[in-house]
């Protein structure tokens, strides 16, 4: 087999024996490093090995024993893992009770109309990892992970290796874990994150924790972004303890003063904020139903683009229909397209990630990934 992912399922069979039980030894050898790993499996004839090296060739062999007769070995088989893909998209899939971070190519890069193209799992499904954010200069992916009931920022290589915990003394906190967001500094040396009413800056190695902004009314900071060419300018989304009374605005780190108010005084949920590199456009989503309820159920979320020159927001003409929500929009690297999450508005609905062409002639949004949300495109 060729081009397997780093998680491989081995399957074999054995003829019957008079013994009550059989045990198996799986030997796995990396052809490049000559490292040999042995796994003992009782009874079962399938076994899964994770975290295999990418771009490597492996040899494997199974030996069976019944404690009465001499052990019998299978023929030696061979397979290779795929080279690490240069996938432009990051997103999250639900695996059991946990969220797992993946990368993918998407039809926009592969030149076909398929979905779930070139998926690659980056985090283990034994941990709850979500909200990936890549920085191209740092060549690292930052993400949130649940640790002992708290949410902390971690970073990893683009391959999912060399995972490091960044925050420790102050977790990422506020209204609902899945509604919180953070951002890299443009040059990738720091991470900016909220904890209730305060915004913090921390170096990527976990040092240099500093409070850089605090709301004046005690409202929670849920999301933050920074303009690429003006590190002093923050884009913030704040809300009350129930997730409502949303304000989206820009503020200066140096003075703490608000500069531009994009949204305030409207009922309902809003979020998914991102500012363009030049600061001339701001993306966000808003529930146009204006519903406020104790389940934080969103009924009719639509994507909006705010133009700073006109100080006006326009709703984007995606092909969303009644009963669906468009959420978490992100600019493409060229800022000519937008990816976002679309999901039915009932509790427990399965999300998917779509692409919308800004100013394009495509009457339908392109579906990129199924059972996926929290997209990132850098």
Topology:
Elements lengths: L7 E4 L11 E8 L5 E7 L3 E4 L7 E9 L6 E2 L3 E4 L8 E7 L2 E7 L2 H4 L9 E2 L7 E7 L4 E8 L2 E8 L6 E2 L17 E2 L5 E6 L2 E6 L6 E5 L5 E8 L2 E10 L7 E6 L5 E6 L6 E6 L5 E7 L13 E7 L4 E4 L8 E8 L5 E8 L7 E6 L8 E5 L2 E5 L1
Antiparallel strand pairs: 1-4, 2-3, 2-5, 5-6, 5-7, 8-9, 8-31, 9-10, 11-12, 12-13, 13-14, 15-16, 16-17, 17-18, 19-20, 20-21, 21-22, 23-24, 24-25, 25-26, 27-28, 28-29, 29-30
Q: Can you describe what's shown?
A:
- The protein has 378 residues and is mainly β.
- Helix content is 1%, strand content 49%.
- It is built from 1 helix and 31 strands.
- Strands 2, 3, 5, 6 and 7 form a 5-stranded antiparallel sheet that branches. The chain has a 4-stranded antiparallel sheet with strand order 10-9-8-31, with no helix packed on it.
- The radius of gyration is 24 Å and the shape is elongated.
- The relative contact order is 0.10.
Secondary structure category: mainly beta
Mean pLDDT: 93
Helix content: under 10%
Distance between the termini: 32 Å
Low-confidence spans = none
Q: Please outline the major beta sheet.
A: 5 strands, antiparallel
How much beta, percentage-wise? over 45%
Rg over CA atoms, rounded to whole Å, is 24 Å
In one word, what is the shape?
elongated
Count up the helices: 1
What's the β-strand tally?
31
């Amino acid at each position: 087999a060729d081009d397997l992912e780093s998680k491989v399922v081995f399957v074999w069979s054995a003829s019957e024996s008079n013994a009550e039980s059989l045990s198996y030894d799986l030997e796995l050898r990396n052809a490049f490093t000559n490292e040999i790993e042995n796994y003992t499996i009782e009874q079962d004839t399938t076994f899964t090995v994770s975290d295999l090296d990418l771009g490597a060739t492996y040899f494997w062999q199974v030996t069976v024993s019944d404690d009465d007769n001499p052990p019998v070995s299978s023929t030696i088989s061979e397979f290779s893992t795929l080279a690490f893909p240069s996938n432009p998209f990051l997103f999250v899939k639900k695996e059991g009770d946990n969220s797992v971070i993946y990368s993918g190519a998407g039809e926009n890069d592969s030149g076909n109309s398929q979905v779930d193209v070139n998926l690659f799992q980056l985090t283990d499904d034994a941990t709850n990892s979500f909200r990936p954010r890549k920085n191209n200069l740092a060549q690292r992916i930052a993400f949130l992970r649940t640790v002992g009931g708290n949410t902390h920022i971690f970073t990893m290589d683009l391959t999912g290796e060399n995972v490091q915990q960044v925050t420790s003394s102050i977790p990422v906190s506020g209204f609902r874990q899945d509604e919180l967001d953070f951002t890299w500094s443009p040059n990738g040396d720091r991470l900016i994150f909220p904890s209730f009413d305060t915004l913090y800056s921390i170096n990527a190695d976990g040092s240099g924790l500093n409070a850089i902004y605090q709301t004046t009314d005690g409202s929670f900071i849920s999301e933050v972004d920074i303009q690429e060419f003006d590190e002093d300018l923050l884009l913030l989304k704040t809300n009350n303890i129930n997730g409502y009374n949303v304000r989206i605005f820009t503020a200066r780190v140096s003075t703490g003063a608000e500069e531009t108010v994009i949204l305030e005084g409207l009922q309902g949920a809003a979020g998914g904020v991102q500012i363009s590199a030049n600061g001339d456009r701001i993306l966000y989503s808003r529930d146009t139903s204006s519903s406020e309820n104790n389940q934080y159920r969103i009924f009719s979320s639509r994507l909006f683009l705010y133009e700073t020159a006109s100080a006006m927001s326009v709703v984007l003409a995606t092909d969303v229909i009644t009963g669906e929500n468009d959420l978490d929009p992100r600019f493409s690297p060229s800022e000519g397209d937008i990816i976002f999450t679309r999901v039915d508005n009932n509790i427990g609905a399965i999300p998917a990630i779509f692409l919308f062409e800004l100013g394009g002639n495509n009457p339908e949004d392109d579906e990129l990934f199924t059972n996926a949300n929290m997209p990132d495109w850098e």
